[in-house]
Write a structure and sequence with these properties.
Blueprint: E1 20-22, H1 47-53, E2 54-59, E3 64-66, E4 74-80, E5 83-88, E6 94-100, E7 105-106, E8 117-120, E9 124-130, H2 131-138, H3 142-168, H4 171-182, E10 195-197, H5 202-209, H6 213-225, E11 229-233, E12 236-239, H7 242-249
Antiparallel strand pairs: 1-2, 2-9, 3-8, 4-7, 4-9, 5-6, 5-8, 10-12, 11-12
Helix pairs in contact: 4-7, 5-6
Length: 257
């Protein structure tokens, strides 16, 4: 794995696990994702204490930093890039259960083993926290603890939405819902972007939506033909008609396939 150290942050020695730790004097003060992460619950004067617990890591594309079935020892706060979350069936088949973007806090699920694996789709930056050390300071920061509970509740909502997506929606509705979810701004107060990056492959999308690759490709091509979206490249999407796309995702379309 190649370690990346953007200036002015010097590079530290690579970990045996492959993820590269970055020596950052005050990672919280320089974090672009603070406003959308659990750290936003802390006041500026308390950030230094959180910073002493954080180990800033950069994970290369394709690198797995959470392994399903292993004993959880860390929490991970995603501050850059996109993470693929997945589970493996006994026969080796993979089911993608979600994609984590900046602001996602991974590792909240209780249990003696990780319930999923997490793999970097692109260069990903995370703040890694020791579970024992972070738990030791939660009593001192009740607002931070409440923010963590809200993150856990959001995970339950996302799981329910995924059940609805796979259980009741048509192929077109699934793809439209997925595109709208990826176009959702990180901060609720920001307007949705008209153009957004799509780091996952068509195979990833098909796996996540419970469809075939051919169905995903055919559906996106049809949405482009109908001028709901434009596809400047396989990794870029432009929303041309958000109203129609939202109507399709909500099931307000007469034609069903």
């Amino acid at each position: 794995m190649r370690s990346i150290s953007p200036a002015p942050r010097p590079q530290a020695a690579a970990l045996a696990s492959g993820a590269a730790p970055l020596v950052v004097p005050d990672p919280c003060a320089h974090c672009d994702a603070r406003s959308v992460s659990v750290c936003s619950a802390l006041e500026d004067k308390d950030l230094h204490r959180l910073a002493t617990l954080a180990e800033v890591m950069e994970v290369a594309p394709g690198e797995t930093f959470i392994e399903e079935g292993e004993t959880p020892e860390h929490f991970f706060n995603v501050t850059g890039g996109t993470v693929r979350l997945y589970k493996l069936l006994p026969d080796g088949r993979r089911q993608i259960t979600g994609f984590a973007r900046p602001g996602h806090f991974l590792g909240l699920a209780v249990g003696e083993a990780n319930a999923f694996s997490a793999e970097a789709l692109e260069t990903v930056r995370v703040c890694r926290f020791s579970r024992s050390r972070l738990r030791a300071v939660l009593d001192d920061f009740p607002a931070f603890e409440r923010r963590l509970l809200r993150s856990a509740a959001n995970e339950l909502v996302a799981a329910q939405e995924q059940m609805l997506l796979l259980g009741r929606k048509t192929a077109r509705e699934r793809v439209a819902s997925f595109l709208l979810a990826q176009a959702r701004p990180l901060r609720a107060c920001d307007p949705p972007p008209g153009r957004f990056h799509l780091p996952m492959t068509r195979t990833d999308i098909a796996d996540y939506l419970g469809l075939t690759i051919e169905t995903v490709s055919r559906t996106m091509t049809r949405l482009r033909t109908e001028k709901l979206i434009a596809l400047p490249s396989p990794a870029e999407v432009v929303v041309l008609d958000r109203g129609r796309l939202e109507a399709l995702a909500g099931g307000f379309e007469e034609e069903r396939i």
